[in-house]
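User: Can you help me understand a structure? I only have the sequence.
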Amino acid sequence: MTGGHVMTMYFALTIDFLDCRFHGRRDGGEPEWPPSPLRVFQALVAAAARMNGGALSDGDSAALQWLQAQTAPVIIAPSGLSSVSPYRLSVPNNAMDLPASYWAVGQDPPGDKAPAKQRSMKTVQPTHLLDGSSIHYLWRMHEPVNAEIVGHVKAIAGPAQNINVLGWGIDVVVGNGTILSAEQVEALFGERWLPHAGTGEGGLRVPVRGTLADLQARHAGFLGRLADGSFVPPPPLVVYDKVNYRRDIDPPLREVAAFSLLRTDASGFRPFDTVKWALTVAGMTRHAARRAAQGSGWPEEGINGCILGHGESIGDEKHQPVGSQRLAYLPLPSLEARGDGKAPVVGSVRRVIVTAFDEASGDKINWARRALSGQMLEKEGKAEGDDKEAMALLSLLPGSDKVICAYIRPSSCWATVTPVVLPGYDDPAHYRRRLQIVTNAEEQKRLRDHLHDRIDGLLRKAIRQAYFPEALAKNALIEWRKVGYWRGASLAGRYGVPDHLKRFPRYHVKVRWRDDQQRPVSIGGPVCIGGGRFYGLGLFAPAD
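Assistant: Let's start by predicting it. Here is the structure, written out as tokens:
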């Protein structure tokens, strides 16, 4: 510590793959990438025990207990690509306990239990490390880093250097453990995999308090499986957690509740013109959500904030922000294949989705699926006191619906179906007015560059406001124009927008997502950015 400043330090456990291939599988037999923290922890335990004659020393045990109690580590790994064509092998199936159970009582195993029969077919689909061989597991060390923690790190460093396999027996590695500063961590090459809140079947296994004891119990059970002359299978490993990991360039996983817009008698689709009616559809869906929330007993504060979005910052006006869990109502124009070559054409709105721009609103989206199906969309009367006109009926759609899939499937190139409303003025310095009177070519170019940079900056700001990672906002390749990129899309200025957004410019936009090395990044939808993103303005579809 110097001058009151505490330096952030990390314990880094590095695994170098000698063959740049990894064969490990997650639950269900799917390829695992990156290798789970639990897999590395198990390798550490095995290496520590091997160095001490088969048992853990007190120092090793204390160090491993400290490590298992830490939060899930950040993982920095090379890009991994699974083999396109898996192949099958006949391999021993690790079932020698079957013939051994007969040998233990002085009998020869029968034909189907003989050692030569203990084989099975195994699918091989290794993950190839594309741009490096080192994987770094980084546990942040709580400041100040005292002598006890340093002792634990030193105790772990020895076994780390004795890890020689990670994954299958053919995945030969070299390990190392050390302490790194934040600056050294920043310089490490590879994709950053970050742990995120929530657990799930698709997550990576991580050690927790009690994992070490469970591993020791399993090992003891394995050693004693034939102790009394009969075969007792060792207990499975059960003390661990599963944590969802996502790269720092991956956007939040956005849940959607999808509905079709039916005629009021449910006899078929009720189409709405995209240019004239999409905004109205969004508004009617929002009011239907408010009615459903009131009927479900939502508190007024929750209705105003989450359902209606009251209090959000709008333009240059200062209000208390609602937060990322505000619901968005996105009318979906159909992308219809027409004409020669069946190129997609923007059609009418026949569906709507309810979503949020973070991943912490899954419970609210699940509520919307239950509560909004069967709700009627009603148009407000022109005069106060007029009866509301029923316009359409919401009917829940599965995620497999073709049009819904067209808006959420992963792609590295997206283009707007409805225009983006910029989150600010694109020409506050009046560059366009000055261009009309400037005759010097160099000055004209300078003004055009300023105007281009201003619009480009606002679009990147819109991407950040929709909770996309900074790496995507910084590296995206962006182009814009007033004319649509899809056949059937109208000029950007013709779409209806809320009154408070009418003063801001609108553009059709195409975005090609890239990482720091300018490699394409495929992301899933929905993608909707800009000042009108809660109403379906700035809605993109994959354009690859």
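Now, to help you interpret it: The first strand starts at residue 9 and ends at 17. Residues 312-319 have pLDDT under 50 and may be disordered. Let me know which part you'd like to focus on.
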